[in-house]
Amino acid sequence: MNKTFVLIKKGKVNRLLHIILFSLLFFFSFTSYSQIVYDNRVFSPLIKTVILEQQGNSFSEPIIYLNSYKKLLLQFDELTEETFRYEYSIIHCNSDWTQSDLDVNLYMEGFETQPIEHHQNSFNTIQRYVHYSQTIPSSNMKLLKSGNYIIKVFKADNPEEVILTRRFYCVEDITNIRTEVRQSSLSSQLKTHQEVNVKVSGKNNRFFQNPSTYMKVFVQQNGREDTKRQLKLRGQSGIDIDFSFDESNQFFGGNEFRHFDITSLRTRSTYVAGFDFLDNQNLVYLREEKIKKTLPYSTEKDINGKFNIRNEYNEDKNTYSDYAWVRFTLPLPYTLEGNYYVVGGLSDWRMTEQNKFQYDNGKYYAYLYLKQGYYNYQILFVPNGDIKGSYREVEGNHYETNNTYKVFVYYHNFSDNYDELIGFSSAEYR
Predict the structure, then answer these.
(1) Which of 213, 197, 199, 210 is nearest to 245 (CA)?
(2) Confidence check: pLDDT of 168 > 70
(3) CA nearest to 355, candidates 319, 392, 384, 330
(4) pTM for the complete prediction?
(5) Backbone phi and psi for residue 120, each to the nearest 5 degrees, phi listed first
(6) Residue 164 contacts residue 153 (beta carbons within 8 Å)
């Protein structure tokens, strides 16, 4: 079973080892680069169920608008009964998620670090935990520039003890974005790909000089960072800037997301085969996975890889929902060509050792420690030497798949030397 299980099973992790572990993770994750590329990361095995979304708007993207009163809500659990004091800081980034050259006082008004103000202990759960939450920006903070941002959460008495980082966006809404998602127009990709065409224009007839050099348009499918690519400029007519080049805008369609419901840890839902209770831990066994690439496309309602925390008692989902080890079973022969991963919001859209399938006794198995709720996921294959997941081996590719595409438009600000985020749009293939 997953190595993290050993840590959790013991109940209390030696605090010194805990500090050393995620301090080393943070160091080696970032110092190997000449410039840090910030990402959504968790550096402690005790931190689970990290959510960053618009306050009061479940399943929303972590996006706020410059000079808007709306806020984001950051939430996470720590699998211990002991409460710690955490603080956070906010870092302004370029479009490639490296830190920008802006001084803190140029992109933020207020205190440079802020405390995580709210925490509650879990109630009546097998797995004891503390739930932390914080609205961002706080009442003592105001963002002054648009762009990419990172929230860095760390121990209050030790800024080097970083427990998590999270990406979010601040948009200065000065563009109109027209996004068309359609079946691929390339004959060789008609059945397997979707095409994303984007046109950008300035609001109130605003004109952007030399967009081929200073404007960047990125498109991302669902929550997968490994699908994000920069579109190529096709041309400009007046104030309309066309990013519909027929090489960079083609995406594999993939398939509808798989799902399971563990709102109850006693009553089986459609894709749950059974339950167990072992060594004071809840276990959930999902039904054996189907190899969907061999099946015709079938429409199915999903939430495009996200998850919804909830419990059967309809009590406070944040503190009454328990945790369980969820077992995934993949009936495929062993391969030396790469690895299979359970991917979605439940894995932070990452492909790591924690969500990788391991081969045992004729099948592949993966174990994820998850909070009660409803989950979407897919099974991706990563060939050796690659960093991108493939739908082809398990899920299959269909142009009809309902995918969400997020469009980010950046423009380089010369006077302050940073990338403004001047537009955001979301569109679906239906």
Answers:
(1) 197
(2) yes
(3) 330
(4) 0.91
(5) -145, 140
(6) yes
